[in-house]
Amino acid sequence: MKSIATYIVLVYGLLVIIGGVIGFVKAKSNASLIAGGVSGLLVLTSGFIMLSGIALGTYLALATTFILIGVFGIRLAKTKAFMPSGMLFILNDIVFIVLVLSLVL
Questions:
Q1: What is the pLDDT of residue 51?
Q2: Which structural domain, as residue segments, surrounds residue 6?
Q3: 9, 20, 58, 75: most buried by Cβ count inside 10 Å?
């Protein structure tokens, strides 16, 4: 389960970065670019730490994902729009659950 979680985190990190770029291109949002880049790089870094077998990577990914769940949950509550807030809220929940399961199993 740990190796599956590692690869999910790496793909998820790339998706977060790509999402930030898409937000910048579509809405000219510097905030999307910066937030997506920083959080995506943080998730990617945690994935590479996980690849080396260090548990800190999993905890770093958990913390980042937890924060993003809060960010997108608040945004979803404000906008009531599924795209992109709702989709990202669900994606973060899934990654968070996978990470918790990787620690438990």
A1: 96
A2: 2-100
A3: 9
